[in-house]
Amino acid sequence: MKFNTSTIVDNRMLVLLVIILIMNTLLVGLNFVISYAQPVAGEKDLSFNKGIAQDLLTYSQRLAQDLNVHDQAAVRETLANFSYEIDLAKDGDELSRVIFTHSRQVQETILREQDALVREKILNLINQDPAMQRQAERLEFTLHISTNEGVDADPPLLSGDVLTAIHELYQGGGLAQEQVFRIEVAEGRSRMLVPYSPLDYIQTLTEEIDSLRVSLREVRMAAGLAEMSGNGVVIRLYDVPNGFTVGGIIHDSDVRDVVNELFAAGARGVAVGGQRLIASSPIRCVGPTIRVNQKEISVNPVVIEAIGDPDVLASGLDIVRFSFEFHRGFHFEIEKKEGMTLPPYRI
Predict the structure, then answer these.
(1) CA distance linking residue 207 with residue 215, whole number of Å
(2) Domain of 132?
(3) Rg for the chain, CA atoms, rounded
């Protein structure tokens, strides 16, 4: 029984496209679940989510093996970084960011390396062409590759055997159905110039857009313009009991001292009285009240929330806490908390 070669190739590419769609769907689903699902069991819930991330890592490793690029240095490094970042994640928000960023990088690296591997083999076949080996002068030609119509060189510089070998290699590579390359040959060696396939440009633009989206999300979170979730601490500052003098109440400078210590201890985000702080956020007293971002906040206690390593943040407040409690008589509470969420800055 004879099989139609074009059908086999189309099926291979269809399988590859299905794999890509499945991975993208998994990434979107996992990102949604980990980012927005309500945590129910703290460390247990994080461990469950890490298990899902590890399954995705295992799937990526198998994909690399199936495409025969698992030994490529870039693939090994990307998979290792993904595994390391999964182990390092301390909360759902951080794990979501790891999956969103590194899973896409792994997928793109695997497909890019597989594409590069096939193209390298194509160049090796061109280099083996006797006509190219005898070529002393520099020349260029266009290589048209189609899974349905075969391979054609313009001008026709390659032998029929080489064209057939390139076609067979291309069929097994799972690349796009049609591609056009500009080939340069000099001193018997060939190299590919800018690929002419629109799919290459689309892929490049897609990667750049995805990278920009990730960067924008991280920048917005760091700047305070997007919601941030994770573990951290809640600080409550109380006035001196029955204290109504200037020295017996919490002032704006006291709040700023605590905020500065939190950022110095590595806080990723801080909110005071429910107001998310950005670089230009004012904290100042207006009469007996404290205003943050030009909005009056509740006092006695003044509530300060910070996301970061709870132990490090708490220890970073030891000096200011000692000063507040023993020198000025304020009551200073620190609560370590899991699954906190800071609101975005709003005008």
Answers:
(1) 12
(2) 5-219
(3) 30
